[in-house]
Amino acid sequence: MTDPAEAGKIAAANRAVDENVKAGQVVGIGSGSTILFAVRRIAERNRKENLDLICIPTSFQSRQLIQDYDLTLGSLETSPEIDVAIDGADEVDDDMNLIKGGGGCLMQEKIIASCSRSFFVIADTRKNSRVLGTTWKKGIPIEVLPMAYRPVQLKINQLLGGNAVLRMASRKAGPVITDNGNFLIDWEFEGVQDWVAVDRILQNVPGVIETGLFLNMATASYFGSPNGDVIVRTKKFKA
């Protein structure tokens, strides 16, 4: 029997791929547990329709998925302009702001999203929130230069309050190391935040390489429910 959350992920992935992936495109492939189902759907369609896609990975994981499913692996060097990117998220708020980086791939994910004409988020309905921090309680992931992690922690605590925690590995001694050879800090916060201001502050701290705040980037978000229904949300534009 399929896990309810997994069923939602599959439903969201299938609909996003079917509605947005077209023949001849350059496609950015995200990272995380949900992206597996998107790659499966892309591969299924590619076998039937010969889509002739070029797939650009956002991590070691997505590179392996592209290869495992016999899709064409590309890079930003040869394909710097991407037609569509599909990725998961840890949480999405009413303004389509995202928290990403729970899997530690935030920097490459943000680069690929920024190079894409359209960026689609896929997730199960648990990730659909009115305010960031409602369901995701692990903080804002921040990629940092290893030699600067301690002063970065102190500076974030001074500027923003909360608690900046070095992310430790679960199956190795010491901290998590990203695909780029850096450390991760998770900034634990409370209450409603001005995310544009928070991101600006974080980006200006020397030693911070990138944040897991994806602001004004997503074209649409697909949230799948266990029964197969999918909610599609687009950004609300204020008059």
Mind telling me the CATH class of the largest domain?
A: Alpha Beta
Order of helices and strands: HEHEHEEEHEEHEEHEEEE
- Separation, N- and C-terminal Cα atoms: 46 Å
Q: Label the CATH architecture of the largest domain.
A: 3-Layer(aba) Sandwich
The total beta strand count reads: 13
Chain-averaged pLDDT: 95
Tally of helical segments: 6
Helix content: 25-40%
Read across the widest sheet, the strand sequence of neighbours is: 2-1-3-6-12-13
- Give the overall silhouette: globular
How many distinct folded domains?
Answer: 2
Low confidence ranges: none
- How much of the polypeptide forms β-strand, as a percent range? 15-25%
Q: Sheet with the most strands?
A: 6 strands, mixed
